[in-house]
Amino acid sequence: MSGPQARDGGAPRVRCHAPVLGRDRALESAAEAVRAAMAAGADEAEAVLMTEDSGLTRYAANQIHQHVAERNIEVRVRAAVGSRVAVAAGNQPTPDALRAVGERVAAMAARSPEDPHFFGLPEPPSTPYPDQTTFYDSTAELEPTDRAATVLGIVELLRGAGAQGFGAVTSAVSELTVVNSHDLHAYQTFTDAWVSVVAQRGRVTAGGAKALQALTTADRLGGAPELRPPAMRPSSGFATSCHRDWSEVDAEAATLRALAKTSLEPPRHVPPGRYTVILEEEAVAEMLGFLAYGALNGLEYLEGKSPFAGRLGERAYPDFITLLDDPTDARGANISVDFEGTPKAPLTLIREGTLEQVVWDGATARRAGVTTTGHALPAPNPHGPMPLNLVLLPGTHTKSELVSQVKRGLLITRFHYVNEVDPAKTLLTGMTRDGTFLIEDGHIAAPVQDLRWVNSIEGVLARTRAVGDAVRLISTGPGYDIRFLTSSLVPTLLVDDFEITGSAE
Amino acid sequence: MKDFALSVLSLLDQAGIDYADVRVVLRRTEDYQVKNGTLEAWSDEEQLGFGVRVLVNGFWGFAATNELTAGQAAHTAMRAVAVARASAVVGGRKVHLAPQRASVTDVKGPCIEDPFSLSPEAKIEHLLAATKALHYPGVSFMVGTLGAMREEKVFASTEGALISQTRTEAGGGVAAVAVVAGDVQTRSYPSAGLGSWTQGGFETVRALDLAGHAPRLGEEAVALLSAPVCPPGETTLILDADQMAIQVHESVGHPTELDRILGSEASYAGTSFLAPDDRDHLRYGSDLVTIVADATCPGGLGTAPFDDEGVPAKRVQLLERGRLTGFLTSRETSPLLAQESGGAMRASGWNRIPLIRMTNINLEPRNGTLADLISDTADGILMSTNKSWSIDDRRLNFHFATEIGWEIKNGVLGRMLRECTYTGVTPAFWSGCDAICGDSEWRLLGTTNCGKGEPGQTIHVSHGVAPARFRGVSVGQDR
Fold first, then answer.
1. Which A residues, 283 through 312, put their C-beta within 8 Å of a C-beta on chain B?
2. In chain A, how many domains are there?
3. DSSP code of B290?
4. Please, are residues B231 and B147 in contact by the beta-carbon 8 Å criterion?
5. Which of A415, A489, B29, B315 is 20 to 30 A distant from B211 in Cα terms?
6. What is the pLDDT of residue A232?
7. pLDDT tops 60 at residue A7
């Protein structure tokens, strides 16, 4: 880990995002809450303490329109009296407040009914936590002006191409601390940075040119055609760049990728039907995220709701499909500990097309008679464990080679609003967005309108004909709750018989 | 909290700002979940913090922290100013806020039976009793949720506003889940997921009568395992109130958010097929369709005396007899329409900026009962209880699935249907609406998981809806 960097030979830069508590205070704060719970009558107690110091610079129509900074903590204490369990949480860092959370949860646990599925909190692990670099000064030092300058660079590139930009630049320092009454102690600090770019070009922006003309001086669009859908739909492209290390985030490359997806050519109409498709990384990651949420979840498996229930060992997909959960891959959002203090380790979920493993936390593993795989989420978690670091192994084909294999089909950049239609069958629906193209005779032929699709993940994997030779880190970005980055490392897929059911036009 | 908010504002006196507001929020939430007679989850959480929003030379900055100390007050206020100054680096249009009279008041929402004073044992027993009533041979899981939230919020601005608001929400739901190899069927009440929430105390949970509605759910979940699949085709579709709520939410609520229309959400939640000058002439639906954004609606999760810019609650007509008549707006966007703010700026907590959000988006009732509507339908399908939802980023092409459906033949409900889905395009779908039930069927349903923004914000909204009928709808096409 490098120290503070000098800029232009001047004074060392001061970290804009510092860990909110730091190792010693974080561990002591979590221990304070645990001690309080034990003193108040708990037989066992665990504190999961997360902190965040973050900033997010959001831009639309080539200007910054939302710009925020946040500092917060969350201490989540699970206490047990026998097998009676409860969880209390707070966000105040003072010793009094931490003790109050511990005392409150102990009192709650004493009044809780017995939980037959609680088998005690984990003992300290027998194996060490993976030694990983998850904190980078390059990210911690980012200031609001740095993020704004990054936006300016994006906007200038897009302006030069007659396009408008929409997206966000965000950076954060976060901490995860796990302490329990069995003398388990874990602490890790992280940085993460993420840039997203939607480039819009041609025709008229979705909100209507008249509105933007009224609001925008520097970026005024020409003309004000009759505002009626679908004619006002602009051409748009999307790309992101994400890493724990800001120096690995390439905003310019993301901007150029997004821009390359735009086209002034009118989109062609594509009728419903089954198409051979190139699913780019954002689309692949979103589909696999649903697999992680349901099919690969140990509790869903135990309850027979996972489509993989009773099928482990079955050859379900082509032999070039291998899916891991690898929290130690430094190309992704690597992490060394789960939310109950179990060391993280790589785990093969699908090996050469064969269903091999689902993921477990302490409680579900005990019920299944296996060992936890280190996939606990923050308590209480009635949904069950899930993998947070999926890696789909790459194949041997470049993206252009994949496109060249398609006689007539589609290239899909990204999905929008995907949801489960039938989780038991991994059946999903969603729309395409920000870059959908017709492929004819092995070449990108024309943009097409956004399309609705309905497909099962299992079907997509089973009908995958080839896998791209490079993986890209895909993250869902800053999320809704306290900052905790998750990611996927995935390649592009060539998939046959992808079901398109309609369009927005 | 008021003194603290004012102290933060005072720190900005010499900071050269155009405008600032401070929100201090204390929120407590409590959640229970039971499954098959076991309490699976019980959590009690408290979050306290404040956020400072400043406008400097026409550009926004915001900073928030969980620590209400003098040191953090100064640091956070100056951080917000630094963030705003950085925003100017890129340039562009400067923000001008619509005028707003500053209010000074304390207000408290309804709560008859304080859910936080009721013993945990009583709440757990309430839920266990309700889920026990789900029992039916073949039911694999009997699940129930129950929760409550109380929020105390102070809003203060450099324009002189000082508003204290306290609100309580409560809600819950139950579901029966039947599982066989490769198939999972669920029946929920009053809505899927976390059920339905209302602004008020535990009396609102009792009013749901979870135990009373539970017995039919178990039987239906098991029956669905062997029910025929919804046949594909174009048909007449009746949607129950629960499905109407999400239909209104996705295809009317979100598209009428003016920030989406202007592109603020283009990189994440999406835009809209609407344009500002569509107002007053775009045909959105049939003459029967009148929809309002009503922040005054009793019990609504979107009901508040003031929004998070200090704008008093309003009732804004979005659609009147099928025509687009208004948008959800803020102080920043309403000048575009030469209007005052519609009072739709809401933040999910102290650590987020307010965004244009739905308040309560309510479909005006018409006439008759659901039974009348069914008996008036020669051939069609009744779909009930949302299971899946998806719509494109301009809010045109939607796809919904429901937990259950029934054929309608010659005015009579026929066989039960599973795997019910329908799809459509927003204006065409609403133009096919030829009947909406009346007051007796109108229900206010509240959801706590409406997402938007970066960083993400989950807001609580309600929808007042009645069952309605739509002609020429494509159903079951993806099977």
1. 303-305, 307, 309-310
2. 2
3. -
4. no
5. B29
6. 52
7. no
DSSP A417-435: EEEEEEGGGTEEEEEEEEE
Beta partners for A49? A75, A177
8 Å CB contact of A501 and B423: yes
For residue B53, give the H/E element and its range: strand B38-56
* Sequence-separated (6 or more) residues with CB below 8 Å from residue A489: A326, A329, A331, A332, A389, A390, A391, A392, A471, A472, A473, A474
Q: Is B53 within 8 Å of B61 (Cβ atoms)? A: yes
In which residue are the tokens 């899909």 written?
A: A412
Give the rounded percent of residues in chain A with a pLDDT score beyond 70.
90
Q: A299 is in which domain, residue-wise? A: 273-503
Position A264 scores a pLDDT of 84
Q: How confident is the model at residue A15 (pLDDT cuts 50, 70, 90)?
A: low
Domain boundaries, chain B: 2-224, 233-475
CATH number for the B2-224 domain, one of 3.40.50.150, 3.30.450.20, 3.30.2290.10, 3.30.70.100? 3.30.2290.10
Minimal Cβ distance to A91: which of B47, B124, B184: B47
pLDDT at B245 over 70: yes
pLDDT digits over A331-363, tens only? 999 999 999 999 999 999 999 999 999 999 999
> To the nearest whole number, what is the mean pLDDT of chain A?
91
Q: Where are the alpha helices (DSSP H) in B283-425?
A: 370-375
Nearest Cβ partner of A227 from B44, B82, B277? B277
B52-65 pLDDT, tens digit each: 999 999 999 999 99
**Closest to B406 measured CA to CA, from B386, B420, B396, B392:** B420
Largest CA distance in chain A: 72
Phi and psi torsions of B163, nearest 5°: -125, 130
∠ CA(A58), CA(A220), CA(B326), 5° rounding?
70
A78-106: average pLDDT: 98
Is residue B193 very low, low, confident or very high in pLDDT (cuts 50, 70, 90)? confident
How far is it, in rounded angstroms, from Cα A346 to Cα A356?
13
Whether B87 has its CB under 8 Å from any CB of chain A: the answer is yes
How does pLDDT run across A232-255, given as a tens digit for each residue? 568 999 999 999 999 999 999 999
E strand map for A393-463: 408-422, 427-440, 443-447, 451-456
Backbone angles phi, psi at B243, to 5 degrees: -70, -35
**Span A439-461, mean pLDDT?**
97
Residue-averaged pLDDT of chain B: 97
Specify if A378 maps to a domain.
yes
ipTM above 0.90, yes or no: yes
Instruction: Please count the residue pairs, one from chain A and one from chain B, whose beta carbons lie less than 8 angstroms apart.
Output: 317
Chain A stretch 345-384, residues whose beta carbon is closer than 8 A to a beta carbon of chain B: 380-382
The answer to the question of residue A119 being in a domain is: yes
- Contact B394/A229, CB-based, under 8 Å? yes
Instruction: Report H helices in A249-294.
Output: 251-260, 281-293
Which of B97, B389, B393 should one mutate to test binding to chain A, selecting the residue with the greatest count of A CBs within 10 A? B393
